[in-house]
């Protein structure tokens, strides 16, 4: 899912914001909704500008933390200020430059599936619908196995995701889903900043019951820590003891 550095609209929007253009704005295209603006400022929110689910997730963090898809580092910086050791990763070279300029101490430019072997984390943090980084249901299955050796004993994954079935509701409340097609939460996105359009990428919105099925099948305990009025939820995944080294 990493995008070549020549095409990095999100990174360039974040850099523009850091360097003084407070009106920098991305345009988000998807195959499920009208295109919509995304102000770069959203990536720079302070603790009290964050949704309650994100603040709850930060309270639940412990130990050495991996901030996956860290963006402009609002979560990493907050956790650093609380004394945590945080590694921030993002596939956008521009975002990584912003993370470094803003003072995140440990930063790397790669996607979720390119972590060096031998690293262990007490918390893997995936916010802003961050579970979507896995891309697809196949990617979710792959990630749940891939994360096992990354988790220190007793380690946790804290992630947010959403049920987007409401996008397919008719006026009478009936759902119109193609049951023979791909899962409705597998979405294709691209971002545009100015004249620059990035590559299309896949993003997964997993409804809670489906996420629970996949995670339990992979050997995780599933604990839902909250939900908001937009159908977004916060989940904690921890390995059942017998599968810690599976």
TrEMBL record:
Listed GO biological process terms: methylation
One Pfam family it belongs to: Methyltransf_25
CDD domains: AdoMet_MTases
Molecular function GO labels: methyltransferase activity
Residues in Methyltransferase domain copies: 65-155
InterPro entries per the UniProt record, alphabetical: Methyltransf_25 (IPR041698), SAM-dependent_MTases_sf (IPR029063)
Keywords of this entry: Methyltransferase, Transferase
Protein name as annotated: Class I SAM-dependent methyltransferase
């Amino acid at each position: 899912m990493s995008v070549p550095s020549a095409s990095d609209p999100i990174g360039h929007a974040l850099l523009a914001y850091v360097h003084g253009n407070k009106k920098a704005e991305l345009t988000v295209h998807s195959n499920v909704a009208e295109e919509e603006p995304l102000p770069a400022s959203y990536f720079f929110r302070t603790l009290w500008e964050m949704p309650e689910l994100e603040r709850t997730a930060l309270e639940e963090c412990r130990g050495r933390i991996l901030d996956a898809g860290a963006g402009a580092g609002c979560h990493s910086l907050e956790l650093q200020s609380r004394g945590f050791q945080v590694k921030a990763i993002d596939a956008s070279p521009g975002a990584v430059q912003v993370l470094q300029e803003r003072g995140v101490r440990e930063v790397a430019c790669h996607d979720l599936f390119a972590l060096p072997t031998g690293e262990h984390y007490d918390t893997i943090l995936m916010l802003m619908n961050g579970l979507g980084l896995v891309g697809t249901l196949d990617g979710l299955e792959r990630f749940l196995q891939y994360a096992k050796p990354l988790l220190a004993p007793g380690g946790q994954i804290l992630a947010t995701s959403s049920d987007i079935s409401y996008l397919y509701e008719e006026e009478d409340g009936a759902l119109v889903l193609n049951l023979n097609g791909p899962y409705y939460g597998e979405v294709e996105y691209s971002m545009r900043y100015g004249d620059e359009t990035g590559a299309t990428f896949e993003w997964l919105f997993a409804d809670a019951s489906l996420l629970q099925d996949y995670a339990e099948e992979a050997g995780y305990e599933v604990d839902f820590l909250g939900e908001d009025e937009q159908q977004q939820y916060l989940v904690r995944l921890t390995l059942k003891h017998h599968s810690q080294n599976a």
